[in-house]
């Protein structure tokens, strides 16, 4: 059942990140790329003079995450609906963990530091916290393959053919 739940969790995560974009939250580093956003809602002040700093275009990391979560949703949904082989319960959950937290790990490279202690760190806290979840996804996939007797062996029901009612 968790395999089916995580498919829509990815979709929900995308909507949350769109909300972050609308609220000008959790944006990225300055960029000169043509798709950079100017987040005028958050005024930055010079700590010495107190003057408002000019607004610069920044990476829309919320959009990067939302799009990656939509791609994860699409991949998992298609895999769930189209697979012809039996896959043990927990496999899609493992794939979800790997894809979602790998996406987050790489997107964190263009994000602002969320808290002051992250300044100067090789990996920020979001990246450090993503690694155990990626590992958990790998473990889940391996576990489902090695300990198959713990997991369901039922295939996903096939979709009814066009023009026929599902029974």
Describe the structure.
- The protein has a two-stranded antiparallel sheet.
- The protein has one domain (2-150).
- It is built from four helices and two strands.
- It has helices at residues 2-22, 61-82, 91-107, 125-146; strands spanning 37-38, 57-58.
- The chain is mostly helical and 167 residues long.
- Helix 1 runs antiparallel to helix 2 (61-82), helix 1 (2-22) packs parallel to helix 3 and helix 2 packs antiparallel against helix 3.
- The relative contact order is 0.15.
Helix content: 40-55%
Average pLDDT confidence is: 81
Q: Strands of the largest sheet, in order across it? A: 1-2
What is the domain tally?
1
Helix/strand-derived category reads mainly alpha
Q: Helix-strand pattern, N to C?
A: HEEHHH
Taking pLDDT < 50 over at least 5 consecutive residues as the criterion, the unreliable ranges are: none
Largest sheet: 2 strands, antiparallel
Q: What does the oligomeric state look like here?
A: single chain
Given the C-alpha coordinates, what overall shape results?
A: elongated
> What is the strand tally?
2
- End-to-end separation in angstroms reads 21 Å
Helix tally equals 4
Strand content: under 5%
The Cα radius of gyration reads 21 Å
